[in-house]
Write a structure and sequence with these properties.
By secondary structure, the protein is mostly helical. It has ten helices and two strands. α3 packs antiparallel against α5 and α6 runs antiparallel to α7. The N terminus and C terminus are likely disordered. It comes from Ceutorhynchus assimilis (cabbage seed weevil).
C-alpha cells in the first residue's frame, strides 16, 4: 500500500488541503497540522512495515526449520508469508538491481516492475481463500477431498495463479498508456480479487452453520478464522481506496478521506502480527518454536521435540486448544 489514491497523479501530498477560497493563514494552519499528521503516520507505517517484514521472515524460518511445523496447513501459511514478503520487497529490489546494472530511469519500466508487488499482493489473498476452501471441504465434504486429491493439492492453487497473471499483464500494458486509468484499473481489479475472497469466506461461514462437520473442527478452525481476521483487517483500506478514487477532485471530503486512508493502511499492515499472535495462541508447536528460537526454553512442553518428524507427517496437522494437543489427519 505504498501509493495512495489521493496523490496518484504525482502531486504534493498536501495539495488536497490547499483550498483557493481560504485565506493564506487558514491554509498554512491546516497544512501545518496535516504535515505533522503526515510525518507521524509515515513513521508509523515505516515501523509497521519493518515489523511486518520481520514477522514474515520469522514465520518462513520457523516453518522451514522445524519438522513438526511442516504440515499441509502450515505450508499454506508459509506460502502466504512468502507472498506477503515479496509484496513488500520484490519490486524495489529488482528496480535497484536494474538501475545499478543498466542505469535505467524509465518511469514506464518502473511501473511494469512495480506491478510485481501487486501480483504478490493478489496471490497472498488467494492463498488465504484457498486455505479456507481446503479446510471446509476437508471437514465437511471429505468424500470430495478424497475423490479429487490432485484438485485440492495442485488444481485450485494453479487456478488462482492463472487468475492473477492476466491482471498483471493487463496492468503492465497500461503502464505505457494513461497513468490515471492504470491506477484505476489496478484498484478495481484488486478490489474484485478481494471481493471474491470475501464472498468465499462469507459463503463458507453460512454453509458451516447449516451443515454438520464430519470430524471435530474445533481444534482446526483457526485455518478458517485467521483468513477471516486478515480479510477484516484489510477491508477498511480497500473501501477507502475505492471511495477515494470515486471522489477524486471532490474537495469537501477529500481531506478527510486522505486522513482515513492513512489510518486504514496502518491497520492493514498489522495483519502479519495478528497472524503470528493467533498461531501462537492456537498451535502448540508455533509457541514451542518461539520459545526455542527466542527464549531457549521449552521445558514446560515435556518430551515434545520440534525436530522429530516422519514421512507420514506431510498430510497431518498438529494443533492445540487450551494446551491440549491433538493430531488431526489432513
Amino acid at each position: 500500500m505504498s501509493n495512495t489514491s489521493l496523490n496518484a497523479n504525482g502531486s504534493s501530498p498536501f495539495s488536497p488541503f490547499q483550498d483557493p477560497s481560504e485565506s493564506v493563514f487558514e491554509t498554512e494552519t491546516k497544512i501545518d497540522f496535516f504535515s505533522y499528521f503526515f510525518i507521524t503516520f509515515e513513521l508509523l507505517k515505516f515501523l509497521l512495515c519493518v515489523n511486518c517484514f520481520a514477522s514474515d521472515i520469522y514465520l518462513i524460518v520457523i516453518i522451514s526449520k522445524f519438522k513438526k511445523l511442516r504440515t499441509r496447513l502450515n505450508n499454506l501459511f508459509l506460502i502466504y508469508a512468502i507472498c506477503n514478503l515479496l509484496y513488500l520487497t520484490l519490486a524495489n529490489v529488482i528496480m535497484i538491481i536494474v538501475e545499478v546494472s543498466s542505469h535505467l530511469h524509465d518511469v514506464n519500466h518502473y511501473c511494469v516492475i512495480s506491478n510485481l508487488d501487486h501480483l504478490m499482493f493478489t496471490l497472498s489473498f488467494y492463498t488465504l481463500t484457498f486455505m479456507a476452501i481446503d479446510w471446509y471441504v476437508l471437514n465437511y465434504h471429505p468424500d470430495i477431498y478424497t475423490k479429487y486429491p490432485r484438485t485440492f493439492k495442485y488444481g485450485i492453487g494453479v487456478a488462482f495463479v492463472v487468475l492473477a497473471i492476466p491482471k498483471w499483464i493487463a496492468t503492465s500494458c497500461m503502464c505505457y498508456e494513461d497513468r490515471f486509468k492504470l491506477y484505476a484499473l489496478r484498484l478495481y481489479l484488486e478490489d474484485i480479487s478481494f471481493a471474491f475472497g470475501g464472498i468465499v469466506l462469507i459463503t463458507i461461514s453460512i454453509l458451516k452453520r447449516i451443515r454438520t462437520p464430519v470430524s471435530d473442527t474445533h481444534k482446526t478452525e483457526y485455518a478458517f478464522s485467521i483468513p477471516k481476521i486478515i480479510f477484516l483487517l484489510s477491508l477498511p483500506v480497500f473501501i477507502m481506496r475505492l471511495i477515494s478514487l470515486c471522489l477524486e477532485g471532490y474537495y469537501p471530503l477529500l481531506k478527510y478521506l486522505y486522513l482515513l486512508e492513512y489510518i486504514t493502511e496502518c491497520l492493514f499492515l498489522t495483519q502479519t502480527i495478528a497472524l503470528l499472535y493467533l498461531l501462537g495462541k492456537r498451535n502448540k508447536y508455533f509457541k514451542m518454536a518461539y520459545l526455542k528460537c527466542c527464549k531457549k526454553n521449552v521445558q514446560e512442553y515435556g518430551d515434545d521435540d520440534l525436530d522429530s518428524g516422519s514421512i507420514n507427517e506431510t498430510g497431518e496437522n498438529h494443533v492445540t486448544y487450551d494446551n491440549n494437543s491433538q493430531l488431526i489427519r489432513f
